[in-house]
């Protein structure tokens, strides 16, 4: 791991990567934010599906089994079933000799099917405000030269980070993998895992609210570098919770992300 490499991951080969300090999350300097490694899995799924002519990642689900250490990781992808219109894929993320996350993905075949004028519920809504008209802000834990809070750039639309319902734009400042431009899907995944953070309903100083999974549904290919999360957290009072995010690009609504939360009081 290095803190000076201007990207999230350095590839050793097509399956093995070294995480840089730009992947560090808010809970421990030894653990990654789940967004970048999930995006790395999305990248591998995209590559596997492209060989079958499948180009739209309609869903990505991650079961986050353990904290992902900042260090060497291996990504493994398998095609479970590939049909005429869609392919189902599974993936594993391994680090420090353990399986740290499992994923499933649905990748669809795209076709030109315009939405007829007058279709109920269309055109789809836009984010409340574009990034150019939103306030530049930083993640509360972006206090060092690296870390996830510096991998991404934020613009605040509504609310306050880590203090209830919040709307914010995300854009990657640095590549996911050295020498590559992130795909639109990878950009979405890097951002979408932050819904529970930006909309935290309990104080970061007194509680831990880690997501144990992540599911992203997308209705179309995202466009551009900016991704907006309109996020809200709901708590069950039983140590469990749910974070939900409506996802937008600069052209409108693109999908949703949902996270199951483990909520605990510190100390």
Description:
- The structure is a single chain.
- The protein has 267 residues and is mainly beta.
- The chain has one domain (9-110, 127-265): Acyl-CoA thioesterase, double hotdog domain (Porin, Beta Barrel).
- It has 4 helices and 14 strands.
- It has helices at residues 35-50, 148-151, 184-192, 195-198, and strands at 9-11, 16-19, 56-64, 72-82, 86-95, 98-108, 135-137, 152-158, 166-172, 207-211, 213-218, 227-235, 240-249, 252-265.
- Strands 1, 2, 3, 4, 5, 6, 7, 8, 9, 10, 11, 12, 13 and 14 form a 14-stranded antiparallel beta sheet that branches.
- Helix 1 (35-50) packs antiparallel against helix 3.
- The longest helix has 16 residues, at 35-50.
- The two termini are 30 Å apart.
CATH architecture type? Beta Barrel
Q: Summarize model confidence as the mean pLDDT.
A: 95
The helix/strand series, from N terminus to C terminus, equals EEHEEEEEHEEHHEEEEE
Within the CATH hierarchy, at the fold level, what is the topology?
Answer: Porin
How many alpha or pi helices? 4
Keywords for this structure?
267 residues; mainly beta; Porin; 14-stranded antiparallel sheet; 4 helices
State the gist of this model.
This protein has four helices and 14 strands. It has helices spanning about 35-50, 150, 185-190, 195-200, and strands at about 10, 15-20, 55-65, 70-80, 85-95, 100-110, 135, 150-160, 165-170, 205-210, 215-220, 225-235, 240-250, 250-265.
């Amino acid at each position: 791991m290095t803190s000076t490499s201007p990207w999230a991951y350095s590839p050793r080969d097509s399956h093995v990567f070294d995480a840089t300090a730009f992947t560090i999350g808010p809970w421990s300097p030894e653990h990654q934010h789940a967004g970048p490694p999930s995006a790395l899995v999305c990248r591998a799924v995209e590559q596997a599906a492209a060989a079958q002519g499948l180009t739209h990642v309609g869903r990505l689900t991650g079961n986050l089994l353990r904290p992902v250490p900042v260090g060497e990781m291996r990504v493994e992808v398998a095609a479970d079933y590939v049909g005429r219109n869609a392919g189902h894929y599974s993936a594993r993320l391994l680090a420090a000799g353990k399986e740290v996350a499992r994923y499933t993905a649905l990748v669809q075949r795209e076709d030109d099917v315009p939405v007829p004028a007058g279709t109920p519920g269309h055109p789809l809504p836009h984010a409340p405000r574009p990034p150019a008209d939103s306030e530049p802000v930083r993640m509360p834990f972006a206090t060092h030269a690296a870390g996830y809070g510096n991998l991404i750039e934020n613009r605040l639309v509504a609310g306050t980070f880590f203090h209830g319902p919040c709307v914010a734009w995300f854009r990657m400042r640095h590549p996911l993998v050295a020498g590559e431009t992130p795909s639109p899907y990878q950009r979405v995944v890097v951002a979408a895992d932050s819904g529970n953070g930006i909309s935290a309903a309990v104080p970061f100083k007194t509680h831990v609210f880690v997501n144990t999974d992540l599911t992203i549904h997308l209705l179309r290919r995202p466009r551009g570098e900016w991704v907006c999360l309109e996020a809200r957290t709901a708590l069950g009072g039983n140590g469990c919770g749910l974070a939900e995010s409506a996802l937008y690009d600069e052209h409108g609504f693109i999908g949703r992300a949902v996270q199951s939360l483990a909520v605990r009081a510190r100390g």
